[in-house]
Amino acid sequence: MSLSMYQASIPVFISILGNLSEILTKAEAYAAAKKIEPTVLIQSRLAADMFPLARQVQIATDGVKGCAARLSGTEIPSYPDTETTFPQLQERIAKTVKFLKTFKPEQIDGSEDKAIALKVGGNELSFKGQVYLLSFVNPNFFFHVTAAYAILRHIGVEIGKMDYLGASPSSAKAA
Domain for residue 170, yes or no? Predict the structure, then answer.
């Protein structure tokens, strides 16, 4: 059985964003329990030249909403990057998941050879749909979600691999 473009994208994005949301819930509870100003966690980073937690979440959500829109030929919703609180980051994730859930398999499937062009850091990048999804979007998405996880884990938030993967990754559903 082959794996479709839809199966390799939308359900995966929704599942991992749900896990990221749970991780942020644990981070917010950790800040409250330890009497740490939540902004300290939200602005934390692992290295001076690395984006902080809030930006990691913003980039992860931007990447997947852009992917779904580009592969389906629909307009990419624009979110201002203004989140400074855990509730705002949660709202961004929820808004992204809601957007992703509007897609049906037939909107994404068949986009393997679709021409995709985008600008990244002032550079024009061109891809075919499948290469865009599997070699650009997925690695970037997982990188930024992993960075968010690592920032919080480094601070001391009690999260582990199963928080990142979710309770049952094999049962991830798009709906």
Answer: no
Does the residue 5 lie in any domain? no
Token pair for residue 124?
């024009």
Is a pLDDT exceeding 60 seen at residue 171?
no
- Counting the structural domains of the chain, the total is 1
Neighbours of 136 (CB within 10 A): 17
**Does residue 42 fall inside a structural domain?**
yes
Which pTM was predicted?
Answer: 0.93
Residue 134's contacts (CB-CB under 8 Å, 6 or more residues apart) are: 8
Alpha-carbon distance 167 to 162, whole Å?
A: 6
Q: Say which residues have a Cβ less than 8 Å from residue 7's Cβ, sequence separation at least 6.
A: 105
CB-based burial label for 44 (10 Å; 0-12, 13-18, 19+) = middle
The predicted structure's pLDDT at residue 168: 59
Sign of CA dihedral 103, 83, 86, 159: positive
- Does residue 145 lie in a domain region? yes
pLDDT in tens, 27-56: 999 999 999 999 999 999 999 999 999 999
| Domain CATH for 136 | 1.20.120.450
Range of the domain at 119: 10-165
